[in-house]
Amino acid sequence: MFKRDGKWWVSITIQGKRIRRSTETSNLELAKAVEAKLRTELIEGKYFDKCEGERRTFREMMDRFMEEHAPKVSENMRVLYTASLKHLSGFFGDMVLSEITSKKINEYKQARKKAGGGAPSINRSLSMLSKAFNLCIKEWEWLKENPVLKVAREKENKGRDRWLTGDEEERILINSPQWLKEIIIFDLHTGLRQDELLSLQWSVDIYKISKLLGHAHISMSTRHAHHCPESLRDGVNILENSGHDLVTVEGNRICQLPETLDLYGGR
After folding, report:
1. Which of 39-53, 160-174, 226-240 has the highest average model confidence (pLDDT)?
2. What's this model's pTM, rounded to 2 decimal places?
3. Which of 56, 65, 70, 162 could form an S-S bond across to 132 if both were Cys, CB 3.0 to 4.6 Å?
4. pLDDT at 104
5. CA 10/CA 4 separation, integer angstroms
6. What own/partner pairs with CB < 8 Å and gap ≥ 24 does 240-247 have?
7. For residues 126 and 108, what is the distance between their CA atoms, to the nearest angstrom?
8. More confident: 231 or 116
């Protein structure tokens, strides 16, 4: 150790690299404590990672995240990423990564709640942030720890399902154009959410998924259809050759469903 301008400095050489750093104190005992902590960080390999984290900013991390990771996910997920990034950037901006602690992330969460942000939206933002930090650790080697892991997620209200009555179904169908009627009938049979329904492709056979996963009812399968579409490409042939469409099924809704449903009647 040596003194410069009234402050104690440490000089440590490890793996051929010399580290010189001010302890920011004129007290020798405190300076020795700082030196001991620095030596521990060097031995555990945290010091150089910390330096990288002190150079990289939140904006750099998210720019790389959107460039490298976002293209690998679905279009719907990219839309959610864009919305979450807007909220995150407004709070963290150009903050260096080493400053984004669990405490700071919790402050972000509280700020979102105060601004009226809902639990699902806040949790999506935290999940995106956690994924970005994991990439920093596992692939980019910018950091050693993920500060999001210590932050609790918001409790979400699961809500309750409400089923349409037969009279409500009839009134909706009577007042809908033919193209929309077909979609409504399909949704009545499956219970798909809007984004799930409108993003269906011929390559996804929901009934085949139901058998593969051992689901007791087809409505359960529709919630999981997007998880394994790659393994069900042959479903297109079954759908196209089924000989059924939603119009012919409409009058038999209470009866047994055909094996597959053709949303557009072969068009």
Report:
1. 160-174
2. 0.51
3. 65
4. 95
5. 10
6. 240/202, 240/266, 245/182, 246/182, 246/185, 246/186, 247/181, 247/182, 247/185
7. 10
8. 116
Q: For residue 144, which amino acid is it?
A: K
Candidates 42, 53, 82, 41; CA nearest to 65 is 82
Longest dimension (CA), the chain: 91
Q: Spell out the residues 6+ positions from residue 39 whose beta carbon is closer than 8 angstroms to its own.
A: 12
Is it the case that residue 59 has pLDDT exceeding 80? yes
Catalogue all structural domains in the chain, each as residue range(s) with its CATH number: 2-44 (no CATH), 58-150 (1.10.150.130), 166-250 (no CATH)
DSSP string, 202-262: TT--HHHHHHHHT-SSHHHHHTTGGGSGGGGTTHHHHHHTS---HHHHHTTTTSPPPSS--
* Partners of 14 in the β-ladder: 17
Tens digit of pLDDT for each residue in 211-260? 655 556 666 555 554 444 443 334 334 434 444 433 343 444 433 433 44
- Nearest residue to 126 (alpha-carbon basis) of 84, 75, 89: 84
**Mean per-residue pLDDT for 147-152?**
95
Spatial CA neighbour of 62 closest among 88, 80, 91: 88
Tokens linked to 76: 């719907």
Tokens matching residue 232? 């069900």
pLDDT at 152 over 60: yes
Please name the amino acid found at residue 169.
Answer: E
Contact 190, 209 (CB under 8 A): no
Q: 191's torsion region: left (phi>0), alpha (psi -120 to 50) or beta?
A: left
